[in-house]
Amino acid sequence: MKNKMRFVCVLLLMFSMTGMLFAQASYEQRKAAEEGAVTVRLAVMQGPTGFSSVGLSRDGGVVSDNVTVELSVYPSPNEVIARLASGELDMAALPTNTAANLYNKGIAVKAAAVVGEGMLKVLSSDIAIQSVSDLVGKTLAVPGANGTPDQMARMLIRAAGLAVDKDIVLDYSVAAPAQLAQMVIGGKVATAILPEPFVTMILKQNPNVRVVADVQSLWSEMMGSENYPMSVLVVSDAFRTKYPYAWRQVVDAYKDSVAWVNASPAEAGAAIEAAGIMKAAMAVPAIPSCALVFRSAQDAKGDMQTYFKTLFDFSPNSIGGKLPDEAFYL
After folding, report:
1. Domain limits of the chain?
2. What is the mean pLDDT of residues 254-265?
3. So what CATH class is 120-223?
4. In the 8-state DSSP scheme, what is residue 150?
5. SS3 309
6. SS3 118
7. How confident is the model at residue 199 (pLDDT cuts 50, 70, 90)?
8. For the chain, percent helix, then strand, then coil, each to nearest 5?
9. CB 73 within 8 A of CB 51
10. CA–CA separation, 77 and 146 (whole Å)
């Protein structure tokens, strides 16, 4: 009898919670409808940072009865930053440290969710290099100074008790990841640190190249967290204030987009190419290795704070000179 009563109580609780959730969803949909037709200007960058967004372009960008997403693609964060600052954009997917930098410099944006985690590898065709310790006395090619690959390379070198230039030389002569990848494939560069999808492309085209270090595994060993938050979805304060319900619908749709891209690489690859983010031939095989995720800013706050603290200790200017405060996390 007691077990039967317990079962009935649990069942009633489940029905009650389901009803509450349904009522809340209906309320938010009704309030969003009251805001009228809203076109959300969302920016992403070329490359894997933009992969997770392409599900939003299905159905012509319509994500609900009253909300449509206008997706724009840019080659670098600088153009996105300028448009966020001027109010030309409402939301954007950005490198996590860039988002912190914007916030700390007074650009009114907040983090809504982590949409991509680390996907860096150290690759080499040098048979003498089997691990990070074998890099002593070697040159490591890095695609550009001050970006995530450079920051992670420097932090890992320091964590290994080594010194840049003294023990390992960092070469920035080829700043574009695509160009650096081609040089690794062609054997003109022996060792490099690169993100997906270039890692997958290199391994497919040059059988002499191997992964000698998974940066995410090294990060996990150092920090005790599974991965680091590499890209984040941000929302402008002006848009959130004007449309307090519509922006949540876009965030929910973004979560669905991430799930769709991960589950349907071939279809997503076609959408990625159509959006001008990257050729499908490169994107499709790399999607499973791109660490595309959706974690709300509150759920990911601990990992983001660990990442920011590490960046701050290494180079305060990389995140705008201070740690983002609690208000940064929606």
Report:
1. 1-34, 35-118+227-328, 120-223
2. 94
3. alpha beta
4. H
5. helix
6. coil
7. very high
8. 50, 20, 25
9. no
10. 13
Measure the CA–CA gap between 302 and 284, rounded to whole angstroms: 31
Q: Which of 243, 302, 234, 287 is nearest to 94 (CA)?
A: 234
Structure confidence at residue 170 as a pLDDT band (50, 70, 90): very high
- The confidence score (pLDDT) of residue 79 equals 85
CA R_g for the chain: 22
Cis preceding-peptide flag for 197 (omega within 30 of 0) = yes
Can the peptide bond before residue 95 be classed as cis, meaning omega within 30 degrees of 0? no
Q: ∠ CA(45), CA(50), CA(53), 5° rounding?
A: 130
Q: How far apart are CA 43 and CA 88, in angstroms?
A: 10
Interval 201-212 mean pLDDT:
92
Q: What is the H or E stretch that residue 84 is in?
A: helix 77-86
Is the fold of 35-118+227-328 the same as that of 120-223?
yes
Domain 35-118+227-328: which CATH number of 3.40.630.30, 3.40.50.1820, 1.20.1260.10, 3.40.190.10: 3.40.190.10
DSSP 165-214: TTTBEEE-S---HHHHHHHHHTTS-SEEEEETTHHHHHHHH-TT-EEEEE
